[in-house]
Amino acid sequence: MKLEQAAKQLEALGNPTRLKLYRILVRAGEAGKPVGTLQENLGIAASTLSHHLHRLILTGLVSQERQATTLICRANYPIMRDLVGFLADECCADAASNPAAGEAAA
């Protein structure tokens, strides 16, 4: 994953409403949630929800699919895993090569 892509995704999740929305979609699983249900869960205007969904869709974190007259939103799990992996992949990588640095920080 590129640094710029991760930064855009983290920026999109940096808004409390979008983060709450994203967590609802992550919890929903592959079935996703209809837009109307999301609006009820969040208690926000349709135009506000549309704005927040648009930001998440632009970064690839969320996808939408029309099923008849219902618009279903889903978390994009591969993209989510890539972002989490990007954040965690190098965890403590420098600590193993420089054990004295950990002591100095303490």
From TrEMBL:
Pfam families: HTH_20. Residues 1-95 form the HTH arsR-type domain. Keywords: DNA-binding, Transcription, Transcription regulation. It comes from the Bacteria. One of its GO terms (molecular function) is DNA binding. PROSITE patterns: HTH_ARSR_2. Gene3D superfamilies: Winged helix-like DNA-binding domain superfamily/Winged helix DNA-binding domain (1.10.10.10). PANTHER family: ARSENICAL RESISTANCE OPERON REPRESSOR ARSR-RELATED (PTHR43132). This is HTH arsR-type domain-containing protein. It comes from Mesorhizobium amorphae CCNWGS0123.
